[in-house]
Amino acid sequence: MQVNPNDFLPQRRPLPIIVLADVSTSMEGEKIDTLNTALAEMHQKFKDLHDTRSHLHASIITFASNAQLLLPLTPVEDVHLPTLTASGTTSMGAAFKIALQLLEDEQQMPKRSYLPSIVLVSDGQPNDEWEEPLQNLLESDRGGRAVRLAVGIGDDCDFDVLKTFVNHPEIPVVRATEVLKLMDFFRFVTMSVMARSTARNPNSSGNLPLHLLNDDDLEF
Fold first, then answer.
1. Tens-digit pLDDT profile for residues 164-177
2. What is the pTM of this model?
3. SS3 sequence, the chain?
């Protein structure tokens, strides 16, 4: 009988990465193009990462006039990235609701999964009721303990909402005053997830490479 060496490797636990992406009208043009490029670069880095401790799974929730689970949690090697387009308003609260549903779906996120990284990207202010959906997300077991990262693009972004979403003394909200800084933010997200994936304890947020961020980009 032929022996498969992989049979003797420890079974990898899923490590979910969930992106909540603002695709409202104000994201048209350079912003949405840069976001698509940043997601593609991050995806390629994740595909190239080989580790026996965790298995990266990616998901994208978009929000404009409505929110939708555009990409269910999928092993990164099987992901076919959709191209995001921008239109409509900013239903951020609806995106929080979908994120909570995803976190509580044991079919997509088994109990054995590591805590997720949840990334919020926005350039505006919510147009729907968001306080209660966000509170429900933060009070959930996985949502409350997740590594939550956020970037606000431009001066019109509601940084108070983003700071409430992050709400962690070691994790700042990033202000992308220039669109190209969005690329830097996603490189930080990529390094953060990769650091967790190879850490002794991937559920710890103590491995985040905060030194990669310039102080001028932080919002407190």
1. 999 877 788 999 98
2. 0.89
3. CCCCHHHHCCCCEEEEEEEEEECCHHHCCHHHHHHHHHHHHHHHHHHCCCCCCEEEEEEEEEECCCEEEEEEEEEHHHCCCCCCCCCCCCCHHHHHHHHHHHHCCCCCCCCCCCCCEEEEEECCCCCCCCHHHHHHHHHCHHHHHCEEEEEEECCCCCHHHHHHHHCECCECEEEECCCCHHHHHHHHHHHHHHHHHHCCCCCCCCCCCHHHCCHHHEEC
